């Protein structure tokens, strides 16, 4: 109902009408009496709207009347925007302040629709901070006169040509602002035929002190001519060679501008929602690149798509790379268009600490990552690159990289591929992963393992038996899993989460040897009927969560032996909850001593 939306708006207007700034401006404009009358009118409308909400009035005539009231509320809301803008102008530009104001911080002013039109008078302004001002629709004319400006976090182009014609600043307002430093985000870029000339006049390539540049286009439906317009607009936005970080959002071109290859100081590159992009520039142009993110590029098939000679296997790809994220690239087949033998695959550098590959179901060939130290997430993708990383390296002899880093790769070497990896997530693997392979033995430092949505997985052996450093394990929605936790020799496992459907009617016997376990969560296990008596052997257990296990009938006597247990949650387990009713349930005496007890 419309009145459900209008009532809080009316309340917001009343709050604004009572502010000191608005009252002062009304007095200055000579509309104080009109303001009082507006306050009284909006108060009456709010009361009517609240009454309509309470009574749930469905009369057609009344609802039409409420819609007309809505028009009054909208007009009042627009008037409040004008008051707020004038209040800002009065604070920013009191009489005689034009020559002394250096910094203006408006971060988080989400209700602000526009900046004062006479901001160009603040000729000594050095810092204009307008992050998270989501209500701003455009920039004022005349910003080009603020030649001392060093900080301009965001520049918003108007989506309406009418606003530009009346009072909106175009991108060419940036032409003289060559002292800008730090970060600049340009929003609402277009791809029409006449935009490239305006964008080029902004003279971004002369802004040598900018470190970060984000270019965000308006996301809309385009015709067949649109990619060319996007490409011309990006060509016109060439930044200075000193730029270190670049992000492109909603770019609709087929290819990336060639000037990107000249940014050899680049340390951070992000491409987001570039739906028609098929060609990237060669990444070997970026020796300092530390972070690369490619998100939702549905037409991209190869990252290095241009034909080029593959370097020898000792080559390090992107020698400074620390973080690589490939997300939502459904047609990505490989790093190179040319087919590469596993024996010739180059490697990512030893400094790589985070690798995420998500929703890249066709990706089968990429550089190896034997030195990866931190986190590896493989979600809805293929395991082949991981397998190659482990097995190919074992078959090579020691070699020296072009950076002088020795890569020992033979089985006799003290180095083992992925021996420094600490966290691994495997989810929605489309291949026939029926067990964790033997080569998991290389993961000697792995502390956290999450296996999710692997529908054909039946056994965690033999791989899991080698994970002697494992501290945190999650198994989620692996419904064919029959042999679950053969972890007899693991004395470090602290956290275990078993979530989703499993065929087993009882907890696997291997759990009884996990005497170091502190937290155990069992959730959405529809076939679970019993918890064995041996649970009393888990003498370090501090927290037990039993959630949505509809067939779970009772708690064992062994639960009394868990002297460290401080938290027990039993949720959505109807049969068990009946036995655990406070004071009267059959199993109540077994759990009454637990301090943090939640039954629901």
UniProtKB/TrEMBL annotation:
One of its GO terms (biological process) is defense response. Residues 171-295 form the R13L1/DRL21-like LRR repeat region domain. The keyword Zinc does not apply. GO terms for molecular function: nucleotide binding. It comes from the Eukaryota. InterPro entries: At4g27190-like_LRR, LRR_dom_sf, LRR_R13L1-DRL21, Rx_N. Residues 12-95 form the Disease resistance N-terminal domain. Gene3D superfamilies: 1.20.5.4130, Ribonuclease Inhibitor. The keyword Nucleotide-binding applies. Keywords: Nucleotide-binding, Plant defense, Repeat. Residues 441-573 form the Disease resistance protein At4g27190-like leucine-rich repeats domain. PANTHER family: DISEASE RESISTANCE PROTEIN RGA3, LEUCINE-RICH REPEAT-CONTAINING PROTEIN 57. This is Uncharacterized protein. It comes from Morus notabilis.
């Amino acid at each position: 109902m419309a009145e459900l939306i209008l009532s809080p708006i009316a309340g917001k207007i009343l709050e604004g009408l009572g502010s000191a700034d608005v009252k002062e401006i009304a007095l200055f404009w000579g509309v104080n009496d009109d303001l009082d009358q507006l306050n009284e009118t909006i108060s009456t409308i709010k009361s009517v709207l609240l009454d309509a909400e309470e009574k749930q009035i469905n009369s057609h005539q009344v609802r039409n009347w409420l819609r007309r009231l809505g028009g009054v509320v909208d007009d009042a809301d627009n008037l409040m925007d004008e008051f707020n803008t004038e209040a800002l102008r009065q604070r920013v530009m009191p009489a005689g302040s034009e020559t002394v104001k250096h910094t203006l911080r408006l971060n988080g002013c989400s209700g602000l629709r526009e900046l004062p039109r006479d901001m160009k008078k603040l000729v000594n302004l050095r810092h204009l901070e307008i992050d998270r001002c989501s209500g701003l629709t455009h920039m004022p004319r005349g910003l080009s006169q603020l030649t001392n400006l060093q900080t301009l976090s965001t520049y918003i182009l108007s989506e309406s040509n009418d606003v530009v014609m009346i009072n909106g600043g175009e991108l060419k307002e940036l032409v003289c602002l060559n002292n800008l430093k730090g970060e600049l985000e340009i929003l609402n870029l277009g791809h029409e035929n006449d935009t490239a000339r305006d964008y080029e006049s902004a003279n971004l390539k002369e802004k040598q002190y900018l470190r970060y540049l984000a270019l965000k286009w308006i996301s809309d439906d385009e015709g067949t001519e649109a990619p060319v317009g996007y490409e011309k607009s990006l060509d016109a936005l060439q930044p200075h060679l000193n730029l270190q970080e670049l992000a492109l959002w909603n770019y609709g071109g087929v290819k990336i501008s060639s000037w990107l290859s000249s940014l050899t100081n680049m340390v951070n590159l992000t491409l987001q929602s570039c739906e028609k992009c098929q060609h990237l520039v060669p990444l070997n142009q970026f020796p300092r690149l530390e972070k690369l993110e490619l998100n939702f590029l549905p037409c991209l098939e190869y990252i290095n798509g241009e034909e080029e000679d593959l370097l020898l296997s000792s080559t390090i790809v992107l020698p400074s790379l620390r973080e690589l994220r490939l997300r939502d690239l459904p047609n990505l087949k490989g790093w190179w268009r040319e087919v590469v033998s596993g024996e010739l695959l180059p490697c990512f550098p030893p400094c790589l600490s985070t690798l995420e590959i998500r929703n890249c179901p066709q990706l089968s060939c990429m550089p190896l990552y034997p030195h990866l130290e931190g986190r590896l997430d493989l979600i809805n993708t293929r395991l082949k690159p991981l397998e190659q990383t482990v097995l190919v390296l074992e078959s090579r002899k020691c070699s020296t990289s072009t950076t002088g880093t020795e890569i020992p790769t033979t089985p006799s070497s003290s180095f083992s591929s992925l021996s420094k990896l600490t966290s691994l997530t495997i989810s929605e693997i489309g291949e026939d992963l029926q067990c964790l392979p033997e080569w998991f033995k290389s993961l000697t430092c792995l502390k956290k393992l999450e296996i999710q949505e692997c529908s054909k997985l039946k056994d965690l052996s033999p791989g899991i038996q080698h994970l002697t450093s494992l501290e945190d394990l999650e198994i989620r929605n692996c419904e064919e899993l029959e042999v679950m936790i053969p972890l007899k020799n693991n004395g470090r496992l602290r956290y275990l989460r078993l979530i989703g459907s499993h065929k087993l009617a009882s907890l696997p016997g291997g759990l009884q040897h996990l005497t170091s376990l502190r937290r155990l969560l069992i959730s959405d296990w529809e076939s679970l009927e019993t918890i064995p008596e041996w649970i009393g052997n888990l003498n370090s257990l501090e927290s037990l969560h039993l959630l949505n296990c509809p067939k779970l009938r009772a708690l064992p006597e062994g639960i009394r032996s868990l002297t460290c247990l401080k938290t027990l949650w039993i949720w959505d387990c109807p049969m068990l909850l009946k036995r655990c009713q406070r004071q009267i349930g059959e199993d109540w005496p077994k759990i009454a001593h637990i301090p943090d007890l939640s039954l629901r």
